Amino acid sequence: MDSRPRLAVWKFASCDGCQLSLLDCEDELLSLAEAVEIAYFAEASSAMEGGPYDLSLVEGSITTAHDAERIREVRRQSKFLVTIGACATAGGIQALRNFADVNEYISVVYASPQYIETLATSTPIAAHVPVDFELRGCPINKVQLLEVISAFLAGRKPSIPTYSVCIECKRRGNLCVMVQGTPCLGPVTQAGCGALCPGCRRGCYGCYGPMETPDTAMLARQWSAMGVAPRDIRRAFHTFNAWAPAFREEGEAHDD
Fold first, then answer.
1. What totals of helices (H) and strands (E) does the chain contain, helices first?
2. Distance between CA 104 and CA 156 in Å, rounded?
3. What are the alphabetically sorted keywords of the record (predicted)?
4. How far is it, in rounded angstroms, from Cα 67 to Cα 185?
């Protein structure tokens, strides 16, 4: 009998990008497969085994009543449950529906809206079941993902930074793009991307969601002083992590 810890990877409403980040581990994935039994991972294999599972990785948000029930079943079967990516941790880009009338969207997008069954909102996994850890990103950082898996297998707390993208910029030696007049969410966004956009002289888009204790109001005031319109401030906060509380509240503070 296989005595290795059992790993499961689940998909809900998402683009699959975070699951692909796991597959992109390549050589590391081979070592992972030796350390754990990958019991369920539909993205990678048709050989899917039932629970219980020692660790479940969950990608995607909850957008249907069926998925709301399914995540409860995943939780029941899992010793530990870790959400991965902006969709699972903050509702994802699809959470933009939460600020509008989803029935209006359905009538515009679908030729036969009577066949569509969906919830009025797109919500993170933690809004439905207890979550043991949330790994941010759109998509997630594969090195951070391996750290999280290793930590749970070893029975320790994952070592994931909670500081801002600004720290990553300083480590890379990037010239601050805001000093050059470019609006940037880096001061309030959690690190993890390696300051990818500022490294290309672009402002941070907030892919990793709010950092620990973000001062979004101060940043918004600075943007206003730079001439950024309230509408554009709202749009900046309402993207990949629009339903994360800090970004949601700051965006709503700049409604027309």
1. 11, 5
2. 46
3. 3Fe-4S, Iron, Iron-sulfur, Metal-binding, Oxidoreductase
4. 32
**Which of 28, 244, 241, 9 shows the shortest CA–CA distance to 137?**
241
Residue 154 neighbours by CB under 8 Å, 6+ apart? none
Give the pLDDT confidence of 61-118 residue by residue, as tens digits: 999 999 999 999 999 999 999 999 999 999 999 999 999 999 998 999 899 999 999 9
Read off the pTM: 0.94
Coil vs helix vs strand at 178: coil
Instruction: Please tell me the distance from the alpha carbon of residue 64 to that of residue 12, in angstroms, as a whole number.
Output: 10
pLDDT, tens digit (0-9, with 9 covering 90-100), for 140-193: 999 999 999 999 999 999 999 999 999 999 999 999 999 999 999 999 999 999
Spatial contact of 50 and 80, defined as CB atoms under 8 Å apart = no
> In 3D, which of 17, 33, 37 has the Cα closest to residue 142?
17
Tokens 């990516």 identify what position?
85
For 53, 98, 137, 154, the CA distances from 81, given in Å and listed in that order, are 9, 25, 17, 15
Distance CA 91, CA 127 (A): 10
Residues 84 and 126: their CA atoms lie apart, in Å, by 11
Q: What is the pLDDT of residue 256?
A: 67
